[in-house]
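User: My instructor asked us to take a sequence, write out its structure as tokens, and then describe one feature of it. I'm not sure where to start. Here is the sequence I was given:
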Amino acid sequence: MKKFLIVLLAALFAISAVACTAGTAATSAKEKLTLGTSADYPPFEFIILEDGQQKYVGIDISVANAICDDAGKELNVMNMDFDSLMAALQKGDVDFVIAAIEETPERLDAADFSDPYYTDYPAMVLVKAANAAAYTDTSSFAGKSVGAQTGTTKADLVTEELTGANLVALTSVTDLVNQLVYDKVDAIVLDGAVALQYAQSNSELDVADVSFGEALPYCVAVQKGDPKNLLPTINATIAKLLANGSIDAFSEAADALSDQAIE
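Assistant: Let's start with the prediction itself. The structure tokens for your sequence are:
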């Protein structure tokens, strides 16, 4: 009987030890913050291959990493079409969104926004280099097919500023650029830095001499009402990054990697 009790106690001790070890491992693992982004937009968010593995890089990814570091959390990236980001945020599928996104009245109905962390060049029109001289002002695009990413302020610019242009809205910027390269559209409207990046990496493309005025700054979006209380940490991180020059460093690093973008 004693022998049986000893064996039973030993077994219970072993189970208890395993349970304690598992509990320690669970509590010691970092909690995650899930970023929603659309990683087809160098230099802001894009994918490269590093040692045969896909890696998310870009200005916005670096900002997201800094936010998670300051929050003591691990970054988890959820990549999706740009026009799905606000819905994913509202449903709680992601904790925050960074995707070269501006605060607009419409978006404020669905989300709250951080302080600005980056102001881009104004939007630009990317065209075939051979045709660039033909586009001298916004009226030059009348009757032309002009692409823009679905759900973006660039799509709004096509319909509101390029009088007579026919909007071709696609979810993927990569697809839009391919449409331009293969003459399926006449032009595409992109954020300035993105348009310049594509023009620099492809000699067949150029930026038309057309102005849209000043750019809106980019911000971080969180759920409406900030139920997870993320904005204080996010704003503190943004203030630090702007003060110490990190945003400029992120931009330089992203520019250096942009020609490696695979999506």
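For the description part of your assignment, you could build on this observation: The first helix runs from residue 2 to 28. Try explaining in your own words what that tells you about the chain.
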